[in-house]
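[step 3/7] fold_predict: job queued, chain A
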Amino acid sequence: MNDDVLTLVIAVVAAVIGAALGWIARTQLWKRKLLRKQAFFGLPDNSESLLVVSRDAGGPELAVLRHDMFALLELSAIVKDCGANAQIVAHDAAQQGFGERTEFCVGNPASNRRMSAHLHSLLPGVHVNTDPAEAGPERGAFQIGTERHRAEPGKSEYVILARLTADLGAAARPVFLFCGQRAITNQAATRYLARHHERLARKYGAGAFVLLLKVVNSQAYGPDVVELVGDVTRIARTPLPVVEKKSSHRAT
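[step 4/7] structure written:
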């Protein structure tokens, strides 16, 4: 074997070894990234999850609002990427606790009983005006602590994105809440989570968080333009003060 052939063989072997090492490095990087994603969402391989959604009015069948369906598609992609399985359940059929399976709950408490229960149990500092007789900007308004957030339909609307866990130890699966003032804001929150889950995982790890998001000009931009108003975790988990109504007495 002359020197030219030997040099060629060495170059080929080096290229093969380099390609193999690069492939191994990329595979390990992908696995670490996947494990971090699975840990954040509580979705190890072949695990089960629940997608809880409101029923659209009009019949006994499980009909879902168009934007809520888009939200479910966003969440289904996350579940699939984690190698897990998802079951879609109507809000009035999900009569079970939480912590055993990851749950994604989508909807407003006015139309989603499960969301109403979660807010009452897990976020006592949040009140959503669900009074059907309420008209104007107060309808659907969020009360978070002392701050009130009113919707301007199509222009400025709010949605709560939360990751919470039951007090069941390290094995507890999280529940994710997407509680918006309109269905399009629910979709905006799921899209925000899909885009920013890595940053949220770096900041919060496997801990709880409650974020208030604002969807800007949805009538023109749909669910794509979302601003982070703030982290309201502490306030949302602190019960609202009880306001006592003063009774008036007429002098006799």
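[step 5/7] annotate
The radius of gyration is 24 Å.
The mean pLDDT is 84.
exit 0
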